[in-house]
Design goal:
3 domains; 10-stranded mixed sheet; single chain; Amino acid/polyamine transporter I; Rossmann fold
Amino acid sequence: MDAAPASAPQARFGTFTGVFTPTLLTILGVIMYIRLGWVVGNGGLLGAWLIMGLALAITAATGLSLSSIASNTRLGAGGPYAIISNALGFEVGGAIGLPLYLSRPLGVAMYVIGFREGWQWIFPDHPALIIDLVVFLLLFGIAYRSATLAFNIQYVIMAVIAASIVSVLASPETLNPSAEIVWWGDFVGFPEDGFQGASIYVVFAVFFPATTGIFAGANMSGELKDPRRAIPVGALSAIVVASAIYFVLAWWIVGAGTPEELTSNYTIMIDKARWPAVVLAGLLGATASSALTGLVGGPRILLAMGEHRLLPRSGWVARCDADGEPRNAMAVTGLLTLACLMVRDLNALAALVTMFFLITYGMLNVVVLIEQSLGLVSFRPSLRIPFWVPLMGVLGSLFAMIVVNPLFGVIATTMVLAVYAWLMRRGLEATGKDVRSGVFVALAEWAAARAQSMRGQSVRAWKPSLLVPVEDPEQIRGEFQLLLDICRPEGNVKLLGVADRDALPALKARVGDLAASFSEDEVFCISTAVAAPEFSLGVTAGLQALQSAFFRPNILFLTAPGVANRNEEFADVILQARDTGVGVLLLGLHRKAGLGRKNLVRVYLRAKGTWSVDRAFETGNLNLLLLLGYRLLRTWDADLEIVTVLRDDTQVEAARRFLKSLCDAARIPPVARRRVLVGDFAEVVAAEEPADLNLMGLQPRPDLDFVERMVELTRGSCLLVMDSGRESALA
């Protein structure tokens, strides 16, 4: 069996270093320097802007999808591979990730060859193979030594590229253009074939690879200090800055020469710059930077696939050195890159590399479409995007595949499907954390009224499935709206009538009518009734019987009895729920206020002597509390307060930091107020302005008198909550 990784990569890079810089430098690459003039010469200024706008729109849509899903989950190593695997499983993630990884050695080899061509403009007599090997070994040595060193060198490269852009824009052509602006070109084609003409789609195909650099920073997800923030901010900022640069340069180029000059001279940007040597240095820096980014980011994808045992010798591939560098994966990447360099002519493979990127673009957008369509509570990204954005990303990626090279699109798709089939045959073990189970659950709900034959659920597919015991349907009238609000839009209710044998037929009919009322309000509801001499025995029988059901309940909903002689009976039911892995909601409904105006939900979190968020979720009773608070905030459009009460003021600052970290980890929206109060709990609660609903933790052996006291002290309804252990506010 493969050994486990020796050391995990360290979280060490921020937004600017880890995402913005490599993404921007990869987008501002060779095409900007030696093909942008050709694009403008063929299409004219408006035609070039249209082509660039379409290509950048596809990239921006994918960047938004990437940012949205990155803000929803704790990404590990692997960037887009990690995102797709988390959502659709290792088979789909590996099918996309392996070809995407292989495009890194191919891409690095192409960038090295591009560097060599620029170098030979200066030194035409230098041997091509020697240049390639020296450049590759130098860049590989930097990447192998340290990703930090590689990124520090990219600062220098960024400065050179910035200077080259200044050199271009400071050219005399800026103030005194040598040619009239041509708004729409004749699309004359390439000088290599004697200008036999080209369509706008051919020009688009030449320009589009310039925009396939948005994964440069996302590939470093496992080593970012805060990937949920760094990827959205860094990637989107880089796209915006790069787009502005491309549009401005197109405006400059159109005046730098006639269409004939622009289409026949690939180096016009260098020739017409104020300081041509600086622009040439920018071209060399851009190719070196792109190659360096591939050598740093590619091994991280391989590392992630090794950690998930998708590869032969996975344990060795996933091993990191003491400083967190995945040098085994780097060595594999270096050898593959060297092999690609020995091919000597990679032009035919350039389109294949672009196809792998486009397939990944499309799959990322598909992931967001699926997550949004399921409506699961686990999908609550900090950055929400409209449905049409990922849809545009999917359609744009398909369009680009057809336009750039349909043959290579078919070849790339075939390779992806072959890898997927291979991984499926390996029978990878599912983690239960992806949303495929959510898709299956959604389909099962549609079929449940007909068959109820599917099984399985995960924390990411969690949604409230309430078991509501009913002795008298009239009692549900006061709770009906709250049950609807907890379950909407994707939850469900199971009504369990409990009566003695003589009263059972009448109760069963009335419970059936009540279930129909839930269905009329668009909450899926089923009902049944059991004969039992005592309430606790009937509920216990229902809990035990439903454990084998596919749509098993995960929350037992009870209303506090309000009479002392039933406290022991209800306590036994709550203990039985805990033993069967079912959460509990115990409602103390205020007799006068009810649910008030549904304007304020207050969640009380009890401090348990630890300020570690992970530890608090392991030992506390927090998951269901936070999930319900979030659901009611969303359903009621209410204010949400997260409150903890301390006995003294010695740890107020620690508690505030804890609440902030807790809300961030659980992705509670920033509009929720966090408050730390000091004093005796009962006195503090009584002094607060009444909330419409107070959420509090419920102990495994509950004191039901406490519920009545809280309703009295808070002057509002209280909902006491106990986790089942099968939900997660972090999912």
